[in-house]
Amino acid sequence: MMPAQCYCGSHLPFSECCEPIITGKKEALTAEALMRSRYSAYASIAPEYLMQSTYFSERSKFTEQDLSDWASENQWKKLEIISIKNGQINDSTGEVSFKAYFQDAEGKNQIHHEHSTFIKENGKWFYVKGIINPQKLSPAVLIGRNDPCICGSGKKYKKCCGV
What we know:
This is YchJ family protein. InterPro entries: NTF2-like_dom_sf, SEC_C_motif, YchJ-like_M. By secondary structure, the chain is of the alpha+beta class. The chain is about 20% helix and about 30% strand. The protein has helices at about 20, 30-45, 45-50, 65-75; strands at about 75-85, 95-105, 110-120, 125-130. The protein has a four-stranded antiparallel sheet with strand order 1-2-3-4. Strand 2 (about 95-105) and strand 3 form a beta hairpin.
């Protein structure tokens, strides 16, 4: 029997991709690898890892139970990496923009669009924080109100993120 593919979309088996990072058998070498492992941790419901991979100053903003509840209430469908800035092996900071596709508890398809920042301390990457729906905050995004929304919802911008 073939091992299940990793949730992060790498096309590698979970046991060879994100699972060793989640279980502490290996470290995420880049900010992107940490982000992918965190997505897989939501999909596989690993709240302890989510807490441990969050930067120390940010951990008090939620509990492992909060993370477990949100992870288990949703069915995780797909991860799409949009952009990466820095976050390589020799960097100390990094940024990753992504979309996490999921089906919520009511059966509605949702997209969590986030621009996340990461920091590496003592050779270990940590998630610091994220901006949700970053296109709402960027004046550099020029889009007409009747254009398709950039979040991928299929709706017109004026009826979606432009509200």
